[in-house]
Structure formats: structure tokens, C-alpha cells
Amino acid sequence: MSIVNFADKFSMFSDHWSPKVIAEMNDYQFKVVKIKGEFVWHQHEETDEVFIVIEGRMHIEFEDRTLTLETGEMYVVPKGVRHKPYAEQECSVLLVEPRGVVNTGEVEGDLTAENDVWI
Amino acid sequence: MSIVNFADKFSMFSDHWSPKVIAEMNDYQFKVVKIKGEFVWHQHEETDEVFIVIEGRMHIEFEDRTLTLETGEMYVVPKGVRHKPYAEQECSVLLVEPRGVVNTGEVEGDLTAENDVWI
Q: What's this model's pTM, rounded to 2 decimal places?
């Protein structure tokens, strides 16, 4: 593989809520995604999920609280925990999760993105 | 867990080549490390290893080439591949690798750091 530059990757697309794979480590994938507005409530029954904010501000709503992540911050959503990401303004996010994880978890719908799309 | 702020974590230590765990995702760990000068040649026989430069510039020397990573860039060193990281100036790096990986891989020595130290 070659060096991955996050800014370069984010400059290559403009759609929201559609993660694109930029690298693999063992059976894990690193994905870039731009988010804006509200996602759907969902959970991933088999895995934790890492959010790293590369640029912007996002929120993760849980059943009992809401977290706010700024540029340069990360959070690990534990497996099986229902959550709903959202962002008032466009936010650039790096996700880390096992290969094969679907963005909407157990909840298929309009925002379910094609899996394993590389950029 | 709580939100992890990379800048906060890097402000909490000053030693070099001694990775500190800041988060876990399944059986993987995210570690912050400051590097400066030359590391040792080593490889990790069982796993790929992710380098993400949070601030600064680092190099990874391989047997056939040398890569330079700048702020906002990442690289995945494939398992089993000998490499030697180095940096002329202090560089702040985020590592991602399975729990239990020793920094010097198969080569124990002066730079072998204690494993699983959290910050």
C-alpha cells in the first residue's frame, strides 16, 4: 500500500454517511466518511466502533446521554450499544472497525451504504 | 470510556519510544507515542501495524525504501516486514495494533518498552 493522506482522501468525495475504505490492518478497516445532519439509531452487535474526528464537530447520542467530539478527539462506541451520530455542520470522520461492518448496523434503511467501497 | 483528546494525551508525557494506551476497540489498542531519533530494526510476525502522524514528520525505513509521513498521514506496515522508524525532530504518533504487541517486535533490547501502559 501507499501512504494515506487524510485531507487528500476527504477531497475526493462529497456525499454524506457513506464510508469509504482507505486502509486495512489485518481484518480491520479504516474508513473516511463525511457526515451532516442526523443518522439513524442503530447498534453493532458484534463489534466496538471507533470514531475519530479529523475535522469538525459531531455528536453521538446514546439512550442516556449525548457526547460531543471535536477535531482531534476519538471515542469507542462499545458493541451492542445503541447510538445515533449527528452533526450540525459537515464533519470529517475516520472510522475503524472490522471488515464487513455495515454503517447502519442491525437497522437496514435508506442510509445503509454499500459496504467495502474503497477510495 | 470517556472521550479521548489526542493533544491532551500528548501533553501528559515527554519520553520517547514508549507507547501509551489511550483506548481499546475489541482486542485492539490505540497508543500514543512520541518519537525522536532512530528506533531499532524489527518486525511484528503476527500483525500489521498502523502509524498515524498526529503532529510532525517521521520516516519508516524498509529494506528497499524509506517512506516519509507528515501530519495527517497514515501507513500500515504489513506483518513480518522489517522496518525502522525514525524522526529528526520530535513527532507525535498514533499507533493501532492488537493488544499485547511489543514495540520492538521480535527484537528485545534497550528500547523495548513496558507493554499495556495506559495514560
A: 0.96
B26-29 long-range contacts, Cβ below 8 Å, gap at least 24?
Answer: B26/A47, B26/A48, B26/A79, B26/A98, B27/B98, B27/B99, B28/A28, B28/A96, B28/B96, B28/B97, B28/B98, B28/B99, B29/B96, B29/B97, B29/B98, B29/B99, B29/B101, B29/B116
Nearest CA to CA, how far is B48 from chain A (Å)?
6
Mutate to test the interface with A, among B25, B47, B68 (most CBs of A within 10 A): B25
In this complex, do B24 and A49 lie within 8 Å of one another by their Cβ atoms? no
ipTM rounded to 2 decimals: 0.96
Closest Cβ–Cβ partner in A23, A54, A73 for B4 = A73
Q: What is the pLDDT along chain B (119 residues), one digit of tens a residue?
A: 799 999 999 999 999 999 999 999 999 999 999 999 999 999 999 999 999 999 999 999 999 999 999 999 999 999 999 999 999 999 999 999 999 988 999 888 999 999 999 99
Domains of chain B with CATH codes: 6-98 (2.60.120.10)
